[in-house]
Structure formats: C-alpha cells, structure tokens
Amino acid sequence: MTFEIHAQGAVHVFDCFSCAIHRMAPICEHCRVQIIGQGVEVEGHWYCGAHCARAEGKAGIVDRV
Fold it and tell me: How far apart are CA 36 and CA 33, in angstroms?
C-alpha cells in the first residue's frame, strides 16, 4: 500500500513512513540533524531548536516546552 504527500507543488509517493521522513524532513542548518517533530523556522531557515538558531545569530528565539 502506498500513500502520497503533496508538498510545494510536487507529489511524492511512498510505501512506508520511514522513507517519507527520510526524504521530506528538513535539515537543521546549524548542526545538520534531520528535524523530525518540532523544529524552528526563522526567516525561511530551519533549525532543530532555539539553541541552533541562536548559534546562527538569530535573536529572540526560544523553545516552547
């Protein structure tokens, strides 16, 4: 059984969630970890958390717990 993900005008077809996560999850622009779950988007850039965003010079970013 397959499923489709429609994102940014493209259609992606997968047969398992792990493949979809591997292909679709954003990458932290500071530490390069794959972001699965909550991430932080600042000015069009993705980070795994506030710590990495601040390390890249983004101010005023806090994690929500």
Answer: 9
> For strand 45-47 and strand 3-7, is the pairing parallel, antiparallel, or unpaired?
unpaired
Quick: pLDDT tens for 32-42.
999 998 899 99
pTM higher than 0.85: no
- Cα 47 from Cα 61, distance rounded (Å): 11
As a whole number of angstroms, the distance between CA 22 and CA 44 comes to: 20
Between CA 14 and CA 4 the distance in angstroms is 6
Coil, strand or helix at 19: helix
Closest CA to 28 of 10, 49, 13: 49
CB 41 within 8 A of CB 50: no
> Does 65 have pLDDT greater than 80?
no
